[in-house]
């Protein structure tokens, strides 16, 4: 058989191919020749054929049929064969293939070889693709080579030990004695690999980290090496752009960062050397910037002095002026991480950070925007908002939503005045209205509603903002709401903050009708506009007939939502005109349901849950907390699950307040005899109570299915009746509707109903329909109780009633044990 072509000739031939198909044909032809040579056990050219096969593998062609030939080359006594064999094993084999186990014995023999270069090949291969089984078998040989005096072998053995530790962490202690003298080595290669090994051991084992901190005194050794690197003169072997061995410096700084984290003594020992590195490193080259960046990360991660931290932030500030985009991005990212702990130091670079908003690179823009919002406070709110609004005006569409949300949050937190706050939000809606998030509209409406003195100014500004431009839908929605709510102020020209404009009722209606028929208006916007027109029927006097016509037209709209609104408004005009003014009266001041502050959120094991909402007491009744405590004191026993009382409906209902957790293990403040429910209380796997209604079937069975009602209390003219329903989606849930009636000649006011059940149940009280029980049985108060009874036990309940009657406060307790079996079985 003729001698196969050399590797160089194969490369030259393949490079002459003009098309991919021609190259594939050449490769297939050569692979066929190599297979034939392998079948004939041609030892002479095996090394050459495997080398060609590795080149084809690098080009992306299959070369798996050469795996066993690599093992044969490894077993050869010739160094050239071993070199190609080990290279092939690293490229073609991995631990997922059982073939690699066949080479364990060869590697063991070569680790004990008399030639250091053969030992080096074996160490490289084991460190590259050794499996956990191979690492266990060969760890002893690696540890022996780690103690040798040969620098060439020690550096390779250190890297191989890193791979062994990653694969088999329990072998870490085997290498501990060998690490004692590694840092005394003069050879930089050994020092570098030793630091890598020590870093791996410290990261993987807290015990090793503590050992190196206390027993080995590792920090002083690293400080000494780093100081020698900084102070040493020119060394051609290690010099990179005028800096002595920057790779080793970076590795040492990373290891110092691990050792100094959360450790005062270690941090104190490295403060001086970190200051020297920060001040003596040349910044004109990228190499110096890399070392400075690692120094900054180390300073920020350890317990460093405040002056050193300021120095680190100033280094990042210099990075922001660098022409390299990557360095600027790294600086912004690092400043964003440190702004919470060193806010004042970062504030000094505010102007440079704001300049980065004008950068052409979108990644730098985003980081600069995030950092700018983190720097906003009460002192710089006006200047920062001016810059961020300018950025919002000119930035790419993908930034507008995040930028608008950030401005909303910052303005809400730091607004110097209500007028400035409203102006800022309106500027955002005018600039990027189509990009704001869904909650922007209700939040701004709430802000406007609560700023009573700004109503005339706001409605005038919004009216002028939407004249002839309906492209920003959130702005149009807010404007429509405000015009409907405060249209009378707009027409009367009562604005004192700026020069009032003269607007007639017809002009206002023209604008709203234009919104209704505009092609740019969404269904939601049209709904806002129609409702605004309807509200104006009670605020305007001369255009009521025109409003009736507009409303009647949309009674046959193809938009179902709009049609429903129009039909209901028509009914108001025709059947319930006497109620129209009361139904459409001005909205009261809204209470904010949730805030961004920490008061509403309780952190529990990394999860956020809504904190129990406090309930306001009736105007003249006793405090709810004391009521609940009295109730629990009288109930007695450890089997009672306390329930938070629900406030009367005179208080605006808090969204989500009725969907609190089932209150089964909440311990009311100061209740001495009520034990909290233990951890064994059954948990609900599906969404509790009201969320059960998301299924297509009816939420509750009809009352007429046979559960009789009961009289739970009848005394002093007050009668409490319970009616029952069972949930279709969760049979363990019983819904009890209480009806309180009053047969006396005077109303019962400030009525509060409370209840408690044994700990095997879970109970939720929803808000009552009123706090006043009318006299002469002319009306009732209704309130819903939801009881979860997963164990289907007989239901028992104790109730407490508090109310004012005939000028005196009344209070009574009762026990209800006569629940019908159908309500709990």
UniProtKB/TrEMBL annotation:
Residues 705-820 form the GAE domain. Signal peptide: none annotated. Residues 596-607 have a biased composition (Polar residues). InterPro entries: Adaptor_Complx_Large_Subunit, AP1_complex_gsu, ARM-like, ARM-type_fold, Clathrin/coatomer_adapt-like_N, Clathrin_a/b/g-adaptin_app_Ig, Clathrin_app_Ig-like_sf, GAE_dom. Residues 596-630 are annotated as: Disordered. It is a peripheral membrane protein. Keywords: Coated pit, Cytoplasm, Cytoplasmic vesicle, Golgi apparatus, Membrane, Protein transport, Transport. GO terms for cellular component: AP-1 adaptor complex; clathrin-coated pit; cytosol; perinuclear region of cytoplasm; recycling endosome; trans-Golgi network. Transmembrane segments: none annotated. GO terms for biological process: endosome to melanosome transport; Golgi to lysosome transport; intracellular protein transport; positive regulation of natural killer cell degranulation. Belongs to the adaptor complexes large subunit family. Subunit of clathrin-associated adaptor protein complex 1 that plays a role in protein sorting in the late-Golgi/trans-Golgi network (TGN) and/or endosomes. The AP complexes mediate both the recruitment of clathrin to membranes and the recognition of sorting signals within the cytosolic tails of transmembrane cargo molecules. This is AP-1 complex subunit gamma. The gene is AP1G1.
């Amino acid at each position: 058989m003729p001698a196969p072509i050399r590797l160089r000739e194969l490369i030259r031939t393949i490079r002459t191919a003009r098309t991919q198909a021609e190259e594939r044909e050449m490769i297939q032809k050569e692979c066929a020749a190599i297979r034939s040579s392998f079948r004939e056990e041609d030892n002479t050219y095996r090394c050459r054929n495997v080398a060609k096969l590795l080149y084809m593998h690098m080009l992306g062609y299959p070369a798996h049929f050469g795996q066993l030939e690599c093992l044969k080359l490894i077993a050869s006594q010739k160094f050239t064969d071993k070199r190609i064999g080990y290279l092939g094993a690293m490229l073609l084999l991995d631990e997922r293939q059982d073939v690699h186990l066949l080479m364990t014995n060869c590697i063991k023999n070569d680790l004990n070889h008399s030639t250091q270069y053969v030992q080096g090949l074996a160490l490289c291969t084991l460190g590259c693709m050794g499996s956990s089984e191979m690492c266990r078998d060969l760890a002893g040989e690696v540890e022996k080579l780690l103690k040798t005096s040969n620098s060439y072998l020690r550096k390779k053995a250190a890297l191989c030990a890193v791979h062994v530790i990653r694969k088999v962490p329990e072998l870490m202690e085997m290498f501990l004695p060998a690490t004692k003298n590694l840092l005394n080595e003069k050879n930089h290669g050994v020092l570098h690999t030793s630091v890598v090994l020590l870093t791996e051991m410290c990261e993987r084992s807290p015990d090793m980290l503590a050992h190196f901190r206390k027993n080995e005194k590792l920090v002083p050794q690293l400080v000494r090496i780093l100081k020698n690197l900084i102070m040493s003169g020119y060394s051609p072997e290690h010099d990179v752009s005028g800096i002595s061995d920057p790779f080793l410096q970076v590795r040492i700084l990373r290891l110092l960062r691990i050792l100094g984290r959360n450790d005062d003594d270690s941090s104190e020992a490295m403060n001086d050397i970190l200051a020297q590195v920060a001040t003596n490193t040349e910044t004109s080259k990228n190499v110096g910037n890399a070392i400075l960046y690692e120094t900054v990360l180390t300073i920020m991660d350890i317990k460093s002095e405040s002056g050193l931290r300021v120095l680190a932030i100033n280094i990042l500030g210099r990075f922001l002026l660098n022409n390299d985009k990557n360095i600027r991005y790294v600086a912004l990212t690092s400043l964003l991480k440190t702004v919470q702990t060193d806010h004042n130091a970062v504030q000094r670079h505010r102007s440079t950070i704001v300049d980065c908003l004008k950068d052409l690179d979108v990644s730098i823009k985003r980081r600069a925007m995030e950092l700018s919002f983190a720097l906003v406070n009460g002192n710089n709110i006006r200047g920062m908002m001016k810059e961020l609004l300018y950025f919002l005006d000119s930035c790419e569409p993908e930034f507008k939503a995040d930028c608008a949300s950030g401005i909303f949050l910052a303005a809400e937190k730091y607004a110097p005045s209500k007028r400035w706050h409203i102006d800022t939000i309106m500027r955002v809606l005018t600039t990027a209205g189509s990009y704001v998030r869904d909650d922007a509209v209700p939040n701004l409406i709430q802000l406007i509603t609560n700023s009573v003195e700004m109503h005339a100014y706001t409605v005038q500004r919004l009216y002028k903002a939407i004249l002839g431009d309906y492209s920003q839908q959130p702005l149009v929605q807010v404007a429509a709401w405000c015009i409907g709510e405060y249209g009378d102020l707009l027409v009367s020209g009562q604005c004192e903050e700026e020069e009032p404009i003269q607007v007639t009722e017809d002009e206002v209606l023209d604008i709203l009708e234009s919104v209704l028929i505009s092609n740019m208006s969404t269904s939601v916007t049209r709904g806002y506009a129609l409702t605004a027109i309807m509200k104006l029927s009670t605020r305007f006097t001369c255009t009521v007939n025109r409003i009736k016509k507009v409303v009647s037209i949309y009674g046959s709209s193809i938009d179902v939502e709009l049609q429903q609104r129009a039909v209901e408004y028509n009914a108001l005009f025709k059947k319930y005109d006497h109620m129209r003014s009361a139904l459409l009266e001005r909205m009261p001041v809204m209470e904010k349901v949730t805030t961004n502050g920490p008061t509403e959120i309780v952190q529990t094991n990394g999860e956020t849950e809504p904190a129990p909402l406090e309930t306001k007491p009736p105007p003249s009744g006793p405090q709810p907390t004391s009521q609940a405590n009295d109730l629990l004191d009288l109930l007695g026993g450890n089997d009672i699950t306390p329930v938070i009382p629900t406030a009367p409906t005179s208080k605006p209902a808090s969204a989500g307040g009725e969907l609190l957790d089932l209150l089964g293990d909440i311990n009311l403040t100061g209740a001495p005899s009520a034990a909290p429910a233990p951890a064994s209380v059954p948990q609900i796997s599906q969404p509790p109570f009201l969320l059960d209604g998301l299924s297509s079937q009816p939420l509750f069975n009809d009352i007429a299915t046979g559960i009789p009602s009961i009289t739970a209390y009848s005394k002093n003219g007050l009668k409490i009746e319970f009616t029952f329903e069972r949930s279709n989606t969760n049979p363990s849930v019983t819904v009890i509707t209480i009806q309180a009636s009053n047969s006396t000649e005077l109303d019962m006011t400030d009525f509060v109903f409370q209840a408690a059940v044994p700990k095997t149940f879970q109970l939720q009280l929803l808000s009552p329909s009123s706090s006043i029980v009318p006299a002469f049985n002319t009306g009732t108060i209704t309130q819903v109780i939801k009881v979860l009874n997963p164990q289907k036990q007989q239901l028992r309940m104790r109730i407490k009633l508090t109310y004012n009657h005939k000028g005196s406060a009344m209070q009574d307790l009762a026990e209800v044990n006569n629940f019908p079996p159908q309500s709990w079985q």
